[in-house]
Specification:
Elements lengths: L1 H19 L16 H5 L24 H4 L6 E4 L6 H12 L6 H13 L8 E4 L4 H7 L3 H12 L12 E3 L12 H8 L3 E3 L9 E5 L2 E2 L3 H12 L4 E6 L1 E2 L6
Helix pairs in contact: 5-7
Bound molecules: zinc ion (2 copies).
Length: 247
């Protein structure tokens, strides 16, 4: 009963907000969506990809290059678009720091489109990068989980790819971008993640989903844990990669 009341209240609240402050395209101000179809169509997807680990070698779809493969558990990091595109930076900012959770649809569609352009194997499961409950309480939602959910439902027509929240964050870690030194970043993340459902991971091709990669350490650490748990391959996808110096 209480939940129903809350849902009704929330719907009325959203309805009232939409009348007072109608949703407009952040790019051209057309009413209706956060990003209208026209402006969405203008988004430039990256057509040249580099190895996500060394960020030097050009590789198909951002697959990990030969030499990085020896030290990394990730098979590839697909970066959809560029953070240097002001519209993308603005959308991500609204989503993460102005708490516009509805934007997961537009941003999720960017991920879906980017993934459809690649030849990476279709994942058996989609796994979001987990958020510590302290951050979850602050933001109110896990931005990676909403994106993962969107991909799970919309990547393939009429077929849902199972979403598995099988990674857990063991402890609170300061945001990686605040730690400049490589070694300290590794230390910061040591044992930060664990697997909650081993059987979900074994022999599976996993698609790990996060919003933004900066150093990539979080994604690489998650991939390591997933591979240790028996995952066949781990690919990851992010909207964009943010350079350390622009943080
Ligand atoms: Zn527009
Ligand atoms: Zn490399």
């Amino acid at each position: 009963m209480l939940v129903e009341l809350f849902t009704i209240f929330r719907k009325v609240h959203i309805f009232a907000l939409n009348i007072l402050f109608p949703i407009k395209c952040v790019s051209c101000a057309k009413e209706g969506d956060w990003l209208c179809e026209n402006c969405f169509a203008k988004i430039k997807f990256l057509d040249e990809h580099i190895c996500g680990v060394c960020e030097k070698m050009i590789t198909p779809d951002g697959r990990t290059c030969q030499s990085c493969r020896k030290k990394s558990s990730i098979s590839g990091l697909i970066v959809a678009t560029s953070y240097k595109n002001n519209l993308i930076a603005h959308l991500v900012h609204l989503y993460k720091y102005r708490f516009v959770s509805d934007l997961h649809k537009e941003l999720g569609e960017i991920l879906a489109k980017a993934l459809q352009k690649t030849d990476v194997p279709l994942p058996d499961i989609i796994v979001p990068v987990p958020l510590h409950y302290r951050r979850l309480r602050w933001r109110g939602f896990n931005q990676s989980l909403l994106l993962a959910r969107y991909l799970s439902a919309n990547l393939l027509p009429q077929f849902e790819i199972p979403l598995k929240e099988c990674l857990a964050r063991n402890r609170y870690t300061p945001p990686q971008m605040k730690i400049k030194n490589y070694h300290s970043r590794q230390q910061n993340l040591a044992d930060a993640f664990s697997i909650t459902e081993l059987k979900e991971v074994k022999n599976k091709t996993v698609l790990l989903v996060d919003d933004i990669a900066t150093t990539g350490s979080t994604i690489f650490e998650c991939a390591k844990v997933l591979r240790k748990a028996g995952a066949k391959e781990v690919f990851a996808i992010v909207i964009a990669r943010q350079e350390m110096k622009s943080v």
